[in-house]
Amino acid sequence: MRRAKLISRFILAIFMIGAGTMHFVNPEFFLKIMPPYLPLHKELVLASGVCEVLLGALLLIPKYSRLAAWGIMGLLIAVFPANVYLFQNQDILPAPPIVHLMRLPLQGLFILWAYWHTKPTIKAAKST
User: Fold this and answer.
1) Sign of torsion, CA 95 97 99 104?
2) What's the pTM value of the predicted model, to 2 decimals?
3) How many domains does the chain have?
């Protein structure tokens, strides 16, 4: 289980770093899915990108990985309104409606994935 959790943490970190990087490579996409009631769209897109990259990197450092996992959970909750807005305005990103619908529970799965990394890894007992 310990090895699986290490691999999982690495994959989650790479995903977060990659997603955060996309905020700088293609900010237009993220600007389009910003709910209009939020202020400072560009600043929020860039700030969330920085947070994703930073939290992904911290997840790779054992001393900070649990804190980073909590941060990832908070960030995923904070950006959830953008996914709801995209679902409500599907013309922003042409795709089948099921794709937009599946983004919502997928966000919950990512939160659960990060939550798994808030728990300490239990070392297997040595057999004698």
Assistant:
1) positive
2) 0.89
3) 1
Cβ neighbours for 30, distance < 8 A, ≥ 6 positions apart: 22, 23, 45, 48, 49, 82
DSSP assigned state of 118: T
The answer as to whether 127 is a domain residue is: no
Residue 126 domain flag: no
* In contact, 117 and 12? CB cutoff 8 Å: yes
- Token pair belonging to 77: 């909750």
CA-to-CA dists, residue 14 to 58, 93, 123, angstroms: 11, 24, 25
Q: Which tens digits make up the pLDDT trace of 35-86?
A: 999 999 999 999 999 999 999 999 999 999 999 999 999 999 999 999 999 9
